[in-house]
Amino acid sequence: MGHDHPHHHHEVLTKVNAAFVVGIILNLAFVVVEAIVGILIDSLSVISDAGHNLADVGTLALSLLALRLMKIKSTNQYTYGYRKTSILVALFNSMLLFVTIGAIIYGAIDRFFHPEIIPGLTVSIIAGIGIVINFSTALLFLRDKEKDINVKSAYLHLLADGLVSAGLVVGGIVIYYTKLYWLDAVFSLIIAAIILFGTWKLMKESLRLSLDGVPSTIHLEEIVALIQQTNGVKEVHHVHIWPLSSTENAMTAHLVLEESVQTEEEAHIKHELRHLLEHRNIHHVTFETERKDCKHGSC
Hints:
Layout: H1 8-11, H2 16-41, H3 44-69, H4 85-113, H5 120-141, H6 149-178, H7 183-210, H8 220-228, E1 233-243, E2 249-257, H9 263-278, E3 284-291
Parallel strand pairs: 2-3
Antiparallel strand pairs: 1-2
Helix pairs in contact: 2-3, 2-5, 3-4, 3-6, 3-7, 4-7, 5-6, 6-7
C-alpha cells in the first residue's frame, strides 16, 4: 500500500484568485449599470442580460470561495478537507443558471405578446460595454481554464456573455432601424438558449463528479492498459477512480504481480506507476498487491 501527495497541484490555482476578484468587481459594476438602464428604457433583453450577469457574479464568488476552501487542511472529521466543495459549487452554479433561464423565458414570452417601445441605440451601447467587460474578464481565465471545472465554467460563462452582448448590439441596431420592438423578446430567448447550451454541459460534468464518477478527462480503459503494460504486473482489477475535488483525483487498485517480483521490485513498480498516473491527473493512489497464483481478493 502507498499514497502519493504531490504539492504542485495545491498551488496551481493560487494565481486565479486575483482573476476572480477582478471579474467579480467588473461584472458587478456592469450589472448595476445594465439593470438601471434596462429598467429606465424598459428593455427585457437588457434586464435579462443583467440578471444573467448577476448570476455569473454569484458563480464567480462561489467559485472563489470553493478555491479558498480547498486549501483548508484535513481534520479527523473531514480527512480530505473541503476539497469536494469545488465540485458542489459547480453543481449549484449550474442549477442557479437553470433558474435564471426559466425567468428569462417566462419574461420573454410575456413581452412577445405585449411588446414595449425601446431605444435600440441605447441597447447597443450598453451591450457594447458588456462585450469589452466580458471578453476582457474571460481572458483572465484563459490560461488556467483546463485545470479546474470552476475556472472553466467561469471562462465559458464570460465568453458566452460576450457573445450575447455582441448579439444585443446587432439586435439594438436592428430594432433602431426597423422599429420591430417584439425582437427584444426574441433576443431574450436567444440569450436563454445560449445559456442553456453551456449550462447543460456544466451540470452533467459537475453531477458526474459529485457522484464520484470517473472525470471526463480520464479514461478507465487507458489507465488499466497502462498499468498492465508495466513490467512485473500480471493483471490489475478492482480499479476505482474518483475526484477529490475539481482539480485532484484519487485511485485504488489491486495489482497482481508476477511470482518472481521481490519486495524491492514491488516498491519500484508502485513508485513508477504513481509517477505515470500523476501525469494522467491522478494524484492520490493506493495499491494493494497480490501474486500471480492468488485468487482475486484472497491474498
